[in-house]
Write a structure and sequence with these properties.
The protein has three helices and four strands; from the N terminus they run H-E-E-H-E-E-H. It is an alpha+beta fold. It has one domain. A four-stranded antiparallel beta sheet has the order 1-2-4-3. Strand 3 and strand 4 form a beta hairpin. The longest helix has 13 residues, at 56-68. It starts with 11 loop residues before the first helix and ends in a 24-residue tail after the last helix.
Amino acid sequence: MHTRHMKKKPTSRDWLPLARTEGGAVELPTGEAFRPEWIDFERGIRVGNLEPHERITQILKYGLEQRYGTPFITDRWGQGTFWQWICWLPRSNREAKPISHDVNFGCAKFFPFVNLIPN
């Protein structure tokens, strides 16, 4: 009798070999891991190549959600490792706008930015 071996179901490790495996403890983005040198006044706000709990986007979003008890959405302008501005707005503000819900311009925001234009 011939037995057929079932094909192994692909895991996230198969698709993303450098990805972390599930089940590991996740650090809360409390701000303890943030380094001031990640705010670069020549290139922008560093968000790339950092662990999630080190990113200022996650640190400030976590702080806003803890303080106000509502989910926030993060938006930004920039690309790659450094962004020029970041904003957070309450998810409910965006969802309350039936026509413009896919843009943030009419919403109240927490909005830090790095001015890259010399004065």
